[in-house]
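Hi C.,

You asked whether I'd gotten around to modeling the 415-residue construct. I have! Everything is below, sequence then structure, no commentary in between.
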Amino acid sequence: MRRIGFVESNLSGSGFDALRAARKLGLHVVFFNCGLDRYHAAAGGTEVLRTCVDEFVSCQTHELAPLMEAVKEVDAQAPLSALLSVAEYEVVPAAQAARQLGLPGPDPDGISIARNKVDQRRRCRERGVPGPAFQVVTTLAEASAAAEEIGLPCVVKAADETSGVHVVRCTTVDEVSMAFSAIVARPTNRRGQATRPEVLVEECLVGFEVSVEVLAQGGSHSVLGVTDKTVSAGNRFVELGHTFPSVLPEGVREDLAGAAVAAARAVDFDLGIAHVELKYTADGPKLVEINPRPAGGRITELMDRSLGVASMELVVRQYLGESVGPVTGPVSGAAIRYLSADPGVVDSVSGLDIARAVPGVQEAVVYLAPGMSVRPLRVNEDRIGHVLATADDPYLAQRLAETAAAQIVVTTGRA
């Protein structure tokens, strides 16, 4: 039996789907992790670990040296056929470890450039990929000066976080100073990796946002589809909804797809699925960022439901050394809308039964029960539920998801 190693997992769809895909392919699954509590706390996590993982290996996963030691020990007992991660913070050490073992995998240097937003910005500018004006700063004075030069509002962004953490739209220089100070005050990111000293101050792009899911294999890049995104208003960029495939006009979709492929090539992303976020501005597509791993936010599931494929199975097969071609086939529609509520303690939840009865609704879920706390909506993890709907047409799926989400009311009071 072939053996595959996974280095951690994300908690929003594609990671668990990758484990399920490996089980479906009949692989022996080894799960390298630095603790299982967060997986058991995630919806469906306990079941996935129980049914899809054969072997658990506890080690430090966010740095190459301890991960490599654990991987070599496992490989010496019975060789691994593949090693990968679809978790944002672990994609770099996993790619480096796979390369050292001589296993199929992406170029670690390309993954490292894409993973760090400063390096990514610089590389894309060098290779002519359109994006926002930006400056890289290391001091408060530099941050303030960059904001003045780029213009307000601007965006202040950490180099090595994800899910909207430390990404803030600033309308004043004082807000820029506060955002910069919050970033540099933390010596490590959320997974304990040492942070880079640089901070990005960027032009605030005005336009609607999409993501493009790019499948790479060697020198070949194909687009699985464009995803319409709904993002929160104000000074944070929380993803509140996705529709796949996009309902934008064909010419606009083609422009966005071309820009995404150019970005993936610019950072030398050469294996797997990249999640490329862009805004369509008055000057055309501009890059928000490249994520060198499959999308979270259930986007891969929307793709699967729409295209009739198992996208994470494609990725697993790639890491096993198999060639996978462009995905073609019938396209229907799928959409997800996330829920939010006023911050405070949950008093009541109503309307779930009505939402679930809306035609096409596959899931309607609230993550919190009465007595639990709703946090201010600042990052993706602050969302409190979702509705997922499917239909023959993506626009219809989107409207069904919106209709169902509007039936759900979560009331909160003061703590």
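If it helps when you're writing up: The chain has a mean pLDDT of 94.

Thanks,
B.
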